[in-house]
Each structure stands twice: as structure tokens, then as C-alpha cells.
Request: fold
Amino acid sequence: MKPIKEIISAEEYKFIFTNEHLKDQLVFLTYGGSHAYGTATPTSDIDIRGCAFNRKSDLLGLSNFEQVVEEKTDTTIYSFKKLINLLLNVNPNCIELLGCKPEQYLMFSPIAQELIDNRKMFLSRRAVNSFVGYATQQLMRLQNAVARDALTEAEKEKHILGSINSAMMSFNDKYATFDEGAVKIYIGKSNKTDMDSEILMDINLTGYPLRDYKAMWSEMNEVVKAYGKLNHRNRKKDERHLNKHAMHLIRLYLMAIDVFEKEEIITHRENDLDLLNSIRNGKFMNDDGTYQCQFFELVSDYENRLAYAVKNSSLPTNPNFKQVEEFVISVNERVL
Reply:
């Protein structure tokens, strides 16, 4: 693997040094994805992640810089303010940026070192919802794939309904609240000629924000769309993707367990690479593309271990807001 400094010297990364929000403003750059975890293969994409200071115009003026995303190179660089807010919620994709190996960082400013040195101030029990939420998404993809091959049409509808109900569990935390039963999703008799039963819905909302309803509808629609895509999949391509999801599911549990057992952020999974690589290479996948019971037993074991770690953890309910605020004020005063 080339050093990150050599990689970003290529022409396609020129935007990092010319973009008005990034040039002379970088806090740090590092790897994301498989290169950060240690699970990269020769064909793995290179993901670059980083952080840039908010400029004076962002802090005092009308500018509102949050992030720069460059899809061609799979690069995401967050503003300092946005990254802090994501870290406060222990967002897995962001908290992992503080746990990379030292040699994986570039443009490492003194403030980046302060951020790394004080990373524990972001850790809290909020990690339960964030890590488990991400892990649940990965598990749903695998369960959907199994259901596609193993269930009848009626059973598949029930499986999709279960996935939608799981997504709805967080609606009142993210959107305007509604009374229990105001949004009811269930299986009923279908009027369609090619279906005996299907998912139906009853909606009883009054004065509900349109944008929140649109966002909820979009989440439910994405569950149905994701399931539908599995019915038209490229088998070999999908096997690779599913095994990758399976690997990341276990990796998320391992990272979450580290957070609660050790109060540490360990992004590079050096001690777990044999297990993770075996999952990605298909150790637990059957010839028909479904997964062995042993894999779901492994998931259950990690779920139980995490539950025990959470129960016995000394992490606070919320992060150390006072310490974080003092740090942010100190950084922004130096920027100004």
C-alpha cells in the first residue's frame, strides 16, 4: 500500500489543495474503510477522510461550510464543527477517524494531536444506539438475502414488514412525534391479481410536518427498494457485497465492545484480521448464497457480549460536553 502522502499527490486529489474550504485549513487527513481497518485487498478502493478548520467567515460570517465530498476519489473532509457534532453522537464513521494507526495520518496539525489525545471525551453510552444502529443495517441486508431464497412470497412480505418496523422504532427520536397507532403498518389481503396478501398502511396524522412525513416515507421506501434489488442481483457481485456486509457487521460489534470494555477507539483491527478476512472470503456463506447458522450464532454471541459490556461499563450517559466545548472554543479562538 502506498503511503497516503504519495496517494494524495496524484492529480485527482488536487482539489484538496485548491478548494477554498480546504487549502491551508486541514486539521488532518487519514484513510477510511478497509485500509483503515486493515482488511484491504489489492482491489480495495481507497477512501480518504479528514477534517478542516472552519474559517473566520464560517464562524462569524454568512458562510456555512459542513463538508467537502468528492465522489470520484471517495473523499470526505468534514468541517471541524460538523465533525465535533458527529463525534458527540459517537457516529461510527467519524469516531473511527480518531483511532487510526499513527502512520495513517497526514496533514497532522498540533490541534489534530490534541483531538486524538482527548478522544475519550466523546465516548458515552450514546455509542449503543449509533453502533448498534449501523450493525442492524448490515444484519438486515444479510437477513433479506437469506429470506429471498428461503421464504414464500407471503413470508417475504412479513420479513419486509419486520424490517420496516425496526426502522420505525427510531422515528419518534428523529421526527415529530405521533401517537401510538397513528401510523400502522400491517399485512392484509391484497387486491392485486398476483398477490394474496401484502403490506398495507393506515395513517391518522393531523397537523403533522410534511417534511418529517416525507423523510419517514423515504426510509420505509428504501427498505422495500433494497429488498427488491436482491431479486435481480448479479450473483457473484452480490456474494462479495454480502460477505463484506457480514464482515463489517462483526467489525462494528468488535469496535463497540472496545468502546464499552476498554473505553478505547481501535480502528485498525490487527488482532481480529483472521476472523474478519475469513468472513469476507465466504467462510460462513452456503453454496446457494445464504448464510450458515454458525454465523448468526456468532452475531448473537457478540450481541450478548456487547450487552454485558454496556451493562457493566463506566461510560457516562452523555459525552463530556463541558470539556468538548472548552476544546472547541480554544480551537476556534486560535483559528480567528
